[in-house]
Design a protein that fits this description.
Strand order of the largest sheet: 7-6-5-3-4-8-9
Helix content: 25-40%
Shape: globular
Number of domains: 1
Number of helices: 9
CATH superfamily: ANL, N-terminal domain
Largest sheet: 7 strands, mixed
CATH topology: Rossmann fold
Radius of gyration: 18 Å
C-alpha cells in the first residue's frame, strides 16, 4: 500500500521539471515556483533534518502550527516521508500538543506556543519558520526554537528513512479526523476522482479555502492525480482571473473564476 512519499515519487517520475507548486502572496507580490525536482529536494532536506536532528521516525508525532504555504507542503511530506504522524493544529492551546515530539511553527506563533509550556525545554522540540520568500531565517526572535531555514540548508539532498514508513501507522490527526499513512493516499485518490482532477490539471486555490479543506484536498489529491497547484496567500479577488490566465489554470478549488472549471461543481 502506498504512502504520501510515493505520491511525490510519482510526480518526480512523471514530470520532474514541470511546475508542481506555484505560490503567490498578494500582500507583497511574492511568487515562488517549484518544479517537482526542486520541491522534492526541499522535502528531502526537511526530512533529513527531522530524522537526523530530532529523531523523527515511525511512531513520532510532528505538530504543524503553520499557515497554508509551499513550505508547509514540504513540512507535511517531510514528516510523512519519515513515517511520522502529523498533528495539524490551529490553536496554541490544543491539548494534543502534549503528544508531539516536534513542533514546526510560524515565527508569529512561537511566543504563544512557548507560553503553553508544552514546547521548549520540558516539552516538544520546537522549530521556527520565518516563511521568508528567499529562505532567510528568523529575525528579532529570542526563544527556545531552532531556526528551520538555517538548519535545513545543511541537511542532505537525498533522503533514505532509517525505517520504511508503515502504511498502517498514523498519518494525520486533524480535529476529529485520523488517517493512516496508507489511508491518506486512498482518501486522496478517491477525492481526486470525486472532484474530477485529471492528470496535467493545473489547480488554483487560496489559502483560506485550502486551510478549511485540509491537506488531503489541497496537497495530496492533486499529487495523486498528477496535477499541479497554484496556491495564493492573502488573495486579492481582483487578481485571481489574471493569476488563472497567466498560470494556465484548468480548474479551481473552492473559488470561482469566470471561464474556469470549478472542481466539485456541475459543468
Amino acid at each position: 500500500m502506498p504512502t504520501p512519499a510515493d505520491l511525490l515519487a510519482g510526480a518526480l517520475r512523471g514530470a520532474p521539471a514541470a511546475p508542481l507548486i506555484t505560490w503567490y502572496d498578494d500582500t507583497n507580490d511574492e511568487r515562488v515556483e517549484l518544479s517537482a525536482t526542486t520541491f522534492a529536494n526541499w522535502v528531502a532536506k526537511a526530512a533529513n533534518l527531522l530524522q537526523e536532528e530530532f529523531d523523527v521516525g515511525p511512531g513520532s508525532t510532528v505538530a504543524l502550527a503553520l499557515p497554508v504555504h509551499w513550505q508547509t507542503a514540504a513540512a507535511y511530506l517531510a514528516a510523512w516521508s519519515c513515517g511520522a504522524a502529523v498533528l495539524d493544529t490551529a490553536a496554541e492551546d490544543d491539548g494534543r500538543l502534549a503528544e508531539a515530539d516536534v513542533v514546526l511553527a510560524a515565527q508569529d506563533r512561537l511566543a504563544a506556543l512557548e507560553d503553553t509550556g508544552l514546547v521548549g525545554d520540558d516539552g516538544a522540540q520546537l522549530l521556527g519558520l520565518s516563511l521568508h520568500p528567499l529562505g532567510m531565517g528568523m529575525r528579532d526572535y529570542v526563544g527556545a526554537a531552532r531556526d528551520f531555514a538555517l538548519e535545513v540548508r545543511t541537511a542532505g539532498d537525498v533522503f533514505v528513512p532509517y525505517e520504511q514508513p508503515d502504511p498502517e501507522a498514523p498519518g494525520l490527526l486533524a480535529g476529529g479526523l485520523e488517517l493512516t499513512l496508507g489511508g491518506l493516499v486512498a482518501t486522496a485518490d478517491e477525492l481526486a476522482r470525486r472532484l474530477g482532477i485529471g492528470a496535467g490539471d493545473r489547480l488554483l486555490t487560496v489559502d483560506r479555502t485550502a486551510a478549511e479543506a485540509g491537506p488531503v484536498a489541497w496537497l495530496l489529491a492533486p499529487l495523486a492525480a498528477q496535477a499541479s497547484l497554484v496556491l495564493v496567500g492573502h488573495p486579492r479577488p481582483d487578481r485571481l482571473a489574471h493569476r488563472a490566465e497567466s498560470e494556465r489554470v484548468t480548474a479551481t478549488l473552492g473559488i470561482s473564476v469566470a471561464g474556469v472549471r470549478e472542481l466539485g461543481r456541475p459543468a
